[in-house]
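Allow me, if you will, to draw on your knowledge of protein folds for a short while. Thank you for your consideration; the sequence and its C-alpha cells are set out here:
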Amino acid sequence: MTCGTETEFWLLSTPVDRGAALHPRVAALLICGAIAGALAGRFATFVTTPEGRVAFTCLAAALGVGAVALPMLVQCRVLVPAVVRVVVGLCLVAVPGVVTVAAVGVAVPPPGPLFVVGAWIAVAAPAVSALRRCDRIAAPEWRVGSDTAVGVSASFTALDPSLLTGVVERKAWLRIGSRRSRALPRRRIAALVRSDLLRHVRRPTPVLVACVALLGVVVLMSVVSPPAAVVVQLVAVFTVATIFGAGLRDVSRDPDFAVLLGTSDTYLRRALSAVPGSAAVVAGAVTGFAGSASVASVVIVIVGGCAAAYRMRTRPPIGYDGLILETAVGQIPVDLLRQWARGPDLLVVCAWLAAVLA
C-alpha cells in the first residue's frame, strides 16, 4: 500500500483513526488479489486441462490472497522483509520444478478439497491480521512505493510503460548498490559487449525470469497445435531479445548518453545487438526442440523475433505532438499509435508467416 503526497500531508498528520480509514482499502486489495489469483488459476486450467478445475481455481485464489497479505504484514511491521523474500524464493524454485515434472510426463494429481481448505485456512490468518493491524502502517511505510505508484499513473496517462520500467529499474539498481569496477577491453566493440554482459551479471533477475518463462513455453508448446506453438515460440524469442536489449534501449532513447560514447549510432547498435541476438538464438534453439515446426518456420521465428525486438528497442523517445484524429467517439492519437506499432507490427507479420509455414 502507498499514498500520494496530498494524502500523506492531510491525513497522516491528523489524529484521524488510521485503521478505520484503511480497512476498506485493505479489504479491496485482498479481494483484488483473490480475483487475480482465480483468473490466473482458471487460465492455467485451460492450458493444462486438469481434472479438478474448480479446486485448482480456488487454490490459486487463496495464493493470490496470501500474495497480497504478506507484504501488507511487512508494512504493518508484523513480519520482517526476510520472510517475504524467502516465500518468493520458494515460489521461484517451486514453479520450475512443477513445470519440469509436467514436461517429463509425470502425472500431477489435482488438489483435493482438504488441501484447498487447508490453503484457505493458512492464508486467512495473515489476511485477518492485515485487516486488524493496518493502523500500524506509519508514514515511512507509506512512502516506500509512492514512486512506483506515480510511475504507474504516469505510464497510463502518457501511454508509455517505459516511465514505469525506468522507476522499477532505478529502485533495483539502488538495492544492488555499488560494485567493484572492472577493467574493460581496449577494443571498442569488445568493451561495449562486455559492459552489456555486466549489466545482466550484476542484475540477474530478468535473466532468471526469462529462463523460468522458457520452461513454461516449452510445456505450452507441447500441448497446443503446431501453428499456435510456432506463435508462442516467436513471442518467447521476441521477449528474450527484448529483455537482453536494455543497452540498445538506453542508447536509442537518450541521445546525450550516446554522444558521450564517442561513436556513431550504427556502430553502437551493432555492438549492443550481440548479447540480445545471442540470447534470442539460444531461446529459439531451446524452444525449437519442443516443437515440430519446419526449418523455415524456425528461421522466421528467430530472425523475425530478433528484428521485431531490434525495432522496438531502437525506437526513439515518444513524441506527443503528432496527429490526433477527432472522431465521433473521441480523440484517436494516430501518431502515438504509429510510434507504438514500431516492433509489434513486424512481430504480427512474422507470426502470420510462421503459422502458415508450420
The first strand starts at residue 325 and ends at 327.
